[in-house]
Each structure stands twice: as structure tokens, then as C-alpha cells.
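A quick aside before the break. I want you to see a complete sequence-to-structure record at least once, exactly as it would be stored in a machine-readable document. Don't worry about memorizing anything.
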Amino acid sequence: MKLSRLRNTTAFRLSLLLTLAFSLFSAGSLYYVYWTTDDHVTTQIDNRLRLESDVLSKLYRTRALPALLTTLQQRNVEDRGGSNLYLLSGPDNSQLFGPASRWEWPSSTEQRFFSLRLDDLIELPGDAGAKRPMRVIVSNLTNGYTLLIAHDISTEKELLRHISSAAVVATGLTLLFALCVGVFFGYNVLRRIDVISSTAGNIIDGDLSQRLVVHNRQDEFDELSSKLNLMLGRIEQLMDGMRQVTDNIAHDLRSPLNRLRNRLEVTLLDGRDTEEYRSVMQCAIEDAEELIATFNALLNIARVESGIDEIDWSEVALDEVANDLAELYEAAAEEQLLQFTWQCDDGCRVWGNKRLIAQAISNLLDNAIKYTPLNGWVSLSVLKKGSAIQLCVTDTGPGIPEADRERVLERMVRLEGARSSVGNGLGLSLVKAIAGAHKAQLILGDNEPGLKVCLDFKALGGKMPKLLSERS
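That is the input. The structure line, written in C-alpha cells, reads:
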């Protein structure tokens, strides 16, 4: 895997950004630890020096200079490690106690703290210990005497240097670890993207059965793969539907076209009188109307699925539409010697396109009347079912086998028993498209005997849904 590809991945760049941010945060946190530790150590040393200076100053005030000199001598002897240094000077800056000083005494009545090197403070033979850091307190006593107490802080400084070095090493290790993590995650991202890219390449080459691998990690890649698989399944379904529609169109439209061609061809073979020509032309017009009806149905389905008719949506009284159509189809059912009944609850209001809903009901009633044998019955009902409104058309015809109920909803699909009857296999497809546009559930069931087709709409309350009002 090329480094340039890895460097250009979002995961790697994000890791670098997080590395920089975390490293800066870690460095700032460690510096804060170093600074607080240094301040705490210095404060503790200053407190000890101040306490000791106050004790010696009080001794000078209460017991005079000889007692102070004796105490300084005693403490100097007890300080076997040489960590403390005591200096006492007189009014004329003469050295009364301690080694020779090379430091210029400050003229102040207050206690003062300083940080100095040992060789800046006293004269030393050679360079042994000359650079040892010292913390110094200077106290001006009465009568011009000055007391200086110094404490060696080499151990404390070494601890602080160790903390500083540890902070630098920890920041470097954090940076290195974050870079390794970035490389690892970038590699994994590229690996999974390569799998997706390879599958996409196979799909582009025409193999629509390919699907992306979905692991059990439930991460964003699995979610994306699942959505893409659903999309690919839908595309494959549409492509299969298109091939099936093409086959069905070729099969169902071939008959009227051949019939039209043969009728015209036979008519031209021999001389005919005017009445015969008119009859042939009338039959040809009927065949052409059948073809036009098929293509109009296909166009209507396409319009519904594309949402073109949503601009005409409004509140629809479903019970009134059903009542009007029931009165119209009652006469058609009587002509076929069928019993027709209907029942509609009042106040059944839905949101949608009145023309499309009427078209769906008409298609269902047409099919029911067409396939119901003599002396059978057809019924239409619009009933309230809680928050839904159910529209059902039932008949006592041959029905549809359960295995074929999904297939008959596809375009240009006609069962073998129905191919001899007039039709184009688009009636239920248009009903399905209208139901989908209205978010209604289309259910095909068994009427025992016959078919029961139901559309479950969402009922409107006293107020139009906000989403639908915005869409209109």
C-alpha cells in the first residue's frame, strides 16, 4: 500500500490532527506539573529558611551577638552534609562568621530571597561545587549586622530536571504512539475501502448480484454497506422489473399489433366495398386505442412514482369519493348479473390527490367486476380503524394464489388464466404506485372465495399534518 494513499486518508489526517492537539495538551499539562512542583519546592525551602532566620534573629535580639555566633558555629558543625551555609557581617561589612563572601549585601530592612550559585556567593578554592544552586535569605539585624542563610537546592533541581526530561520523553512517546495509531487506522480504512471499491467495480461491470460485506461491528462502514446493499437490491429489482416489463410488453402488445397488421393486410388483398373498409378501420381504431391505453397506464404509473401530481394534493373525503364511484359501478355490476354492495363510514378524511385515489378505486372495482363470474357479488367498504381508514374491495372471483400476490403488483404481469381477457396487466401496478405515493399499505388477501384488496390510509384529524402541508 502506497504511503501517499495512506497519507491522504481522512482517518490518517484526523489522527495527525488529534496527535497534535493531544501532544500540545500533554505538553501543557506536564509543564503545569513541572511549574507547580517547582513553585511548591521553592515555597517549602523559603518557609524553612524564613523560620530559621526568624529563630536566629530572635536569639540575637534576646541574648546578643555572642550567643548568635555560638549557635551559628554549633549549626555549622552539625551540618555534616554541607547543605547549609551561614554568613554574618558587621556594620562595616566585615566578615564575622562564615567563609569569605564575594557577594554584595543588599541594603534593605526586609528579608530578601535570592537564587544564586555557590561561587557567586563565597570565595572557593578551585571549582569543586562552584556551580551548586543555592536558595538564599538575607535578614538585616539591628546595629547594622546582616545575617545570610543559604540552602543547597541541588537535589530539588535534579528532581525538577528529571520531571522536565520525563515530560519531553512522554510527549515524544505520545506523538509516536498517536502516529502509529493513525497509520493503523488509516490502513484499516483503506483496506475496507478497497473491498468496497472492488465490489463496486464488479457492479459497474454488470454483476448486479454483488453485495458489500457487512461485519458485526455495527460501525459507520457497516451502516453504509447496509444502505448501499439496500440500494443495490432496489436497483437490481428495478432492472429485473424493467426486463420483465419489456418481455411482457413484447408479449402482450404483439397480439394487437399483429391483429392490426393482418387485418389491414387482408383488407388490401381484395377489393372491398365502403362498408367493409369502414368496419376494418373501426377495428383498427379499437386496436390502436388498446395500445394507447396501455402506454397511458405506463405514463400514469411513472407520474405517480415521480411525485408530479403531489402539487394537486388536498384534504380528500374518502367516503364521498367511494360513494360516488359505488353508484357508478352498481349499474356496471348489474349488467354483468352481479350483486354489488357498499358501506362507507362518515367523516373518513385523508390527505392526498382525489383524482389518483378515485383512479385506484376504479381499477380495483374494474378488476373485481371483470373477474367475478355470473351471480357473484362485489363489495366496496370504507371503514374507520382507529387512527387509520381502511378501503376494501372484495369479490367472489377466482382470486389470486398467495405465491403470486407480490408478482401481480409488478407492471405488465398477468397470470396465465387472465391472458385471454381484455387488459394490459397495469391496473394493480397503478394501484400500488398510488398507495405508495399516499403512504398507504396495500394488502391482497383471500376472501374465501375470491380476492380481498385493502388500502390502509392514515386518517386526518382536526388539523392537517405539518409535513404534508409543507409538501403541498
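Two observations worth writing down. The chain has a mean pLDDT of 80. The radius of gyration is 50 Å. We'll return to this after the break.
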